[in-house]
C-alpha cells in the first residue's frame, strides 16, 4: 500500500509534467518569441559567429599552406608584420579613398535619379527598369565593360575625346587616371542601388504635404529642402550604411579593370587579402588583414547607427 509521501510525490510529478506540457502547447509571449527566434539565432551562429571567431583565431597563427609546416600560435606577429607592411598601408588608403569618393558620388547621382524616377510619368516601368539594369549587372561584368570603355586605343571614351578635338588618354598607365576610371565605374554601378532605396523613401512621403506647401506659396527648391530632404534622411542613412560597407570591401571592379596596377596604386585591401590567401596561401596573414577589414566595416556601421539614435 502506497504511503502518503509516495502518493504526494507521484501527484507532484504528474502536475509538473502536465504543467510543462501545457506551457509548451500554450506558451507565453516571451517563450513564443524565444522559440521563434531560436532557429534564426542558430543559423546566424553557424554562418556568421563561428566563421568570424575562426577567422580571428587563424589571424593569431602562422599558417601557410606552402611551407609544409603545421600551424603554430604566433600571437600578434601577423599584426606586427601588418603595421610594417607598406603595401597594407597603400591598399588601405586606396580603399578609404575609394569609399570617400564613390559613396558621396553615388549618393548625389542616386538622389538625382530617384527624383527623376519619381516624376509623374504616364508610363513608369521604362524609368524603373533603367534603374534596375546597372544594379543587376554583376560587378566583374561592369568592370570588364568599363575597361573596354577606357581602353587607350579603341575605347569609347578616347574616341569621344578625339572627336571633340582632344588627345586620347592612356588611362591605365597612370595611377591617377586609372584611379579616376575605377571611381567613375563604381559610381555608375552603385548609384542605381542608392536610387532604388531613395525612391522607396520618396514614395512614403504624403502628397498632402506638397499640396499644403503649394497653398503656402513654397517653391520647388524650398519644398525639397524643407519637406523632401528631411523625410528622406532615414532612407539616405540606410543607403549610406550598405554602400559604405560594400565600398570598404571593393574588389571586383578594380580587379577586372587594372588588377591593382600600375604597380599596387589601385589595389584595395580586399585585393591584398585575396593575394595573400589565394595566391600566396598565407592564411594567417590573410586572416589578420580580413580582421582589419571586418573591424573597419563594424566601426563605420556603429558610427551610422549612433547618428540615427542621436537624431531620434
From TrEMBL:
One GO biological process term: transmembrane transport
Family, similarity comment: Belongs to the binding-protein-dependent transport system permease family.
Keyword Electron transport: no
Annotated GO CC locations: plasma membrane
Membrane topology of the entry: Multi-pass membrane protein
Taxonomy, superkingdom: Bacteria
Pfam families linked to this entry: BPD_transp_1 (PF00528)
Taxon lineage: Bacteria, Pseudomonadati, Pseudomonadota, Alphaproteobacteria, Hyphomicrobiales
Transmembrane domains' residue ranges: 32-57, 96-117, 129-150, 170-188, 231-251, 285-305
Subcellular location per the Swiss-Prot or TrEMBL entry: Cell membrane
PANTHER family from the UniProt entry: BLR7065 PROTEIN, INTEGRAL MEMBRANE SUGAR TRANSPORT PROTEIN
Annotated ABC transmembrane type-1 domain residues: 92-304
Chain segments annotated as coiled-coil in the UniProt record: none
UniProt KW Transmembrane helix keyword: yes
Keyword annotations: Cell membrane, Membrane, Sugar transport, Transmembrane, Transmembrane helix, Transport
Protein name: Multiple sugar transport system permease protein
Organism: Microvirga lupini
